[in-house]
Write a structure and sequence with these properties.
Elements: H1 3-8, H2 16-21, H3 24-53, H4 57-73, H5 77-89, H6 95-123, E1 144-149, H7 153-162, E2 168-173, H8 176-182, E3 190-194, H9 202-211, E4 218-222, H10 227-235, E5 238-243, H11 248-256
Parallel strand pairs: 1-2, 1-3, 3-4, 4-5
Helix pairs in contact: 3-4, 3-6, 4-5, 5-6, 6-10
Amino acid sequence: MSIRERLLGISELNIERMFITIRSSQYDDYIRVLNSFVEDYPKCEAELKSALEQKDYLSYSSRLVAIRDMLIEIHASELAVECQKQINGLVSFKHEKIEAHMNYLLSMLTILSIDIQMAVYRDEGEYEEAPPAEVTNDPDSQKRSILAVDDDAFSLDALKNALKGAEYKLTGVNSGAAALKFLQNNDPDLFILDIEMPDMDGYELARNIRACGKKAPIIFLTGNATKEYVLKAFKAGAADFIVKPVIQKQVLDRIGKFI
């Protein structure tokens, strides 16, 4: 799959019409704009959070405007509209509602940045795409098994709630050591690993999982979209990402790619 095809698969980017007539030089320019978004977003995110924490709504609004303009430039029009809604609502929303809207928006922006990086890194051969799990007709195997590892009990509960009613069997443990012990007698169809954990972080756990001979896809839980952070996750074996705080649709969409 080419980088164009992968970019077309990112639902937040409205680029179908543009890609029909785009020239080679324009395509190169667009890739540079995408890379600029990836580079600039973490700083914008930090500034937005800082302004809201200080209740500096003027600075908060100006940062939203900057992010909105970045989104327009990369043709992420629906997210740009979400930014504008927040800008318009600042005069009437209470602080708690503004914060809730910001967290939702940042979750969507973070996964967009990561998706763009996934498209680029795959194209540059930084890592291989994980294949979907094999389909079986065995009725006892209809519920695919997932091992989730996170030292934060709230995050594990959020994942369980997101998967409620879905045809998955989720086992949650709170450490890398507990995960490796579980793997002595179990072979999950998918792993969901938090990255920032004490004693054994997600990168190290992913390497240990592969050393055990387990080949199921690994999805990392993260809230960090910096290039260094994402590339390190790729090199540790990431097949995909779920962004914290988790959103049910995103969880189901990401898991559904593999099992």
